[in-house]
Amino acid sequence: MSKTRKIIIDCDPGIDDALAIFMALSSSKLEVLGITTVAGNVNIDKVTRNARSLVTLAMRHSRHGSMNPPPVCRGASGPYFTERRDGGHVHGENGVGNVSLPEPAFAEDPRNAAAFINETAEALGGELELVTIGPLTNIAGALHQYPDLAGKINRIVMMGGAAGFGNVTPAAEFNIYADPHSAAAVFQSGIPIDMYGLDVTNCALITEEERAALRASGKAVPAACCDMLETYADFYQSVGFSGLALHDPFALAGAIDETLVSFESRYVAVETQGKHTLGKTVVDVFGTTGRAPNTRVAVDLDREGFIALLTELLCSYE
Amino acid sequence: MPEISKNMTVKAAKADSAEKAANNTAYKTEKSASSPTAGHIAKTHPASLGPFTSGAPHSLPVIMDCDPGHDDAIALVLAHARPEIDILGVCTTAGNQTIEKITLNARKILSFLGCDAPVARGSSKPLFRELITAAEVHGETGMDGPDLPMPDRPESELSAFELMVDILENAAEPVTIIPTGAFTNVAMLLLARPDLKSKIARISMMGGAAIGGNWTPAAEFNILVDPEAAQIVFSSGLPIIMSCLDVSHKAIITLEDIESFRNIGTKTGVMVAELLDFFKKFHEEYFAGFGGSPLHDPCAVAALIAPEIFRSVKARVDAECVGALTTGATVVSPAKGETYGGFIGRTPPEEANVDVVVDINREAFVDLVADALRSLS
């Protein structure tokens, strides 16, 4: 078995973030050293509280009995230069499909997200990986605040962007559009990036039958996921999808098992000025920029394998 | 079979994808469509084209607006060969090479073909920007390869703008403009003589891309040369058929196709084969994954002659003019009811300004070109 990957999840829960967190906390391939939050799908208070509630639920049903919760550290309350945009129409007013989650059973960590990321990276001596499934404000902030940090991060596994069409606009995906300047800084940082964009995550669909199978497990964690996904389903049906696109869980699944995804190495940068293209991830498919690749762009996936892994991990809770 | 697509080819997941669910036509999923031999093109003809069939009582009057350019030259050959098209004039615009070189090239091609349409020199640079050229692709002359004789007829005394005005003012019926270079001439016409819009039936252009680019990661060359001009065209309210990289990167001419053109035995067949002998060098070096050369510009002509071999998507299209990395990108927002590239259209249909041509039956397209070469001496 390969070595456990030590990760911090930087997130904005978020319905699909919630599933990703549950997957990560139950996977033996990952060690979750902390969860940092960032305003995105809903505001910073809500996403931070949601993160603590999700961890509380996961701890309560862990198959390993009592576990110490990973620290949950509050991050940025909005993007650097642009207006904050909410994803509440997708994720419900409370960010988790208006499902009632348990009261957080542990306190928020007093450390700020950027400080926590830097501290953890220093302690690990280059082994830390960041799994970013929200806007990239915390990461850009940390890189700016701690100039040596980039060299201490092994890899960023990112849900964000698209080589093809966007979702917020025809050109831009939500996590990048929510803070294009931060995303641009992250792509320029020199840290190797695995980019799980809409090209694959729009195909990481869960069908109604597969959701029914999760619910049939009769367990609390998959049931909570299915409850949250009801709201998500309303949105995806309204825009004509045949299933629900599990963006963040697929990035997490790729971090656990890379055989589920194929990559192409590309140079990627982010548009920060376009009138029609703000927040577009510009992927150099034909090498016309002459720049060396900085990103592994996910281009293909094993959907059935992904759903099998998702189901296994969610149903591994007691 | 050569694998042309370096882009996304999603395997298993496509079966459940939104694309397929929303796409209830006979058209195949995008996996198969990315193959150069994809068939089953849906009957989604560009609506702005209207009924137009081979053997119609009269031909479609057109103005060619081009920067030859190997693929521009083949577009001229195709338009000249087909009885459905009547070339009223050929305008030139700087792009692939300087205005002097490409105007000479246009005259050489028309002389070679024995086509009497006037050739009028157009803009020597974009509206606001410095000219960029594509010598890497088209060579020093802009049309390297065949050794064509000097033209046996003079350049028009009119400028491209004056020729367009003259043709449109005197046209008995609305004229189709086929721009296969930068859009500088057409933009100037639309700005200076908006009253002549009623004399323009449609614009069938080669340019842009729904996904990606060829000169930068986000921009196709013709738009990149003069993005402001392109945006003037997109904002004109005229019916626009946009054959973009999404389709032209599938309109691939293989080495075997080049030999079959040469073996037709006509002097035009040999000349086109010699154009392609040069054109393929660039694509072999930089776009090897295509398995051949993309015939961009002839798509803009073929989309008029044989709409049934293409698939198009109604969309709102804008040219990005102020991007740091994306200037020259055509931002394509498919209309409600359309699905393309995993994007489910949401633009109100009344805001759609372009029929974006995105796919082609490659073999039928190659046959169309071969038939044209066969029909000429």
Commentary on this structure:
The complex is a heterodimer of chains A (318) and B (377). With 318 residues, chain A is α/β, with parallel strands linked by helices. Chain A has helices at residues 15-26, 44-60, 88-91, 113-124, 137-145, 174-177, 180-187, 198-201, 208-216, 220-238, 247-256, 303-314; strands at residues 5-11, 30-37, 72-73, 128-132, 153-159, 193-196, 205-206, 244-245, 261-266, 268-270, 281-283, 295-301. An eight-stranded mixed beta sheet of chain A has the order 3-2-1-4-5-6-12-9, sandwiched between helices. Chain A is globular, with a radius of gyration of 18 Å. Chain B is α/β, with parallel strands linked by helices. Helix content of chain B is 34%, strand content 17%. In chain B, the strands form three sheets. A nine-stranded mixed beta sheet of chain B has the order 3-2-1-4-5-6-13-9-10, sandwiched between helices. Chain B has a two-stranded antiparallel sheet with strand order 7-8. In chain B, helix 3 links the parallel strand 1 (60-66) and strand 2. At the A-B interface, helix 8 and strand 12 of A face helix 1, strand 10, strand 11 and strand 12 of B.
Mean pLDDT across the residues of chain B is 88
| Main sheet: strand order of chain A | 3-2-1-4-5-6-12-9
Mean pLDDT of chain A: 95
Q: What's the total helix number of chain A? A: 12
| Structural class estimated from helices and strands of chain B | alpha/beta
The outline of chain A comes out as: globular
Give the helix level of chain B as a range of percent. 25-40%
Helix proportion of chain A:
25-40%
**pLDDT under 50 segments of chain B (min length 5)?**
1-56
The number of helical elements of chain B comes to: 14
Uncertain spans of chain A, ≥5 residues at pLDDT below 50?
none
* Major sheet size, sense and barrel closure of chain B: 9 strands, mixed
Give the H and E element order of chain B. Answer: HHEHEHEHHEHEHHEHEHHEHEEEEEH
> Could you say which structural class the secondary elements and strand pairing of chain A correspond to?
alpha/beta
Please report the total strand number of chain A as a whole number. Answer: 12
Q: Hey, which two chains have the biggest interface? A: A-B, 48 and 47 residues
Distance between the termini of chain A: 24 Å
Oligomerization status of the protein chains: heterodimer
Rounded Rg of chain B: 19 Å
- From the alpha-carbon coordinates, what is the Rg of chain A to the nearest angstrom? 18 Å
